Amino acid sequence: MAPESTSTPKKEKKDKKRKSEAADLAPIPAAEGTASAEAVAMEVDGDKALKKQKKEKKEKRKSLAAAEGAEGEAEADDKKGEFSVPLDAISPIASPLAGKKLSKKLFKTVKRASKARQLKRGVKEVVKALRKGEKGLLLLASNITPVDVISHLPLLAEEAAGVEYCWVLSKEELGQAAGTKRATSCVLISATPAKRSAPKDGSASKGASAEDLAELKSSLEECVEEVKKLETTIKY
């Protein structure tokens, strides 16, 4: 029978020493309510606040970048829609001629009129509307050649009651605002509500909404007031 192994006093002392060293190295958790526990809590809260702040800054940078991108796209669209017209291409009878700021406002009104179906495009439609007694604002392109095709329109506008007229630089811009693929020599923004016949099948007629008509009326009145202030150097 093998004798029972017994640990020597020397081995027991070494084990005790190792256990005591391990206990010294192990971190002692701070008791709740003590200064050390509050310090740990403050450190954790500080880390959370820092992470939150970094996240907010990142989101803010993203939103600013998106806003700048949208503005850049809008500016690019505006520049894309602009056409340069040489001075020698402008008709000598183009008076009063709208400036850049007023032209933008006029083109926006043309777009609204096209949407509300209150726009007459081209010489034939404009002459027909003026002879019928429609009121509104006549826009003429200054770079039309030969200018004889529209030279009679200012006289018709002056003879008609409730019609103002104004020249804009580009026939291309005028056509673009009017919703056509080709350049347009003239348009009439009609202030007279269009009469739309009801469909034969008895369904409701598709006309402009009251909101669109109200926006057009307000914009048109504003444009007419500004056109009246322009200086006219040529009297027909």
From TrEMBL:
It comes from Kwoniella heveanensis BCC8398. InterPro entries: eL8/uL1-like (IPR050257), H/ACA_rnp_Nhp2-like (IPR002415), Ribosomal_eL30-like_sf (IPR029064), Ribosomal_eL8/eL30/eS12/Gad45 (IPR004038), Ribosomal_eL8/Nhp2 (IPR018492). GO terms for cellular component: box H/ACA snoRNP complex. This is H/ACA ribonucleoprotein complex subunit 2. Residues 51-63 have a biased composition (Basic residues). Residues 30-41 have a biased composition (Low complexity). PANTHER family: RIBOSOMAL PROTEIN L7AE FAMILY MEMBER (PTHR23105). It is found in: Nucleus, Nucleolus. Belongs to the eukaryotic ribosomal protein eL8 family.
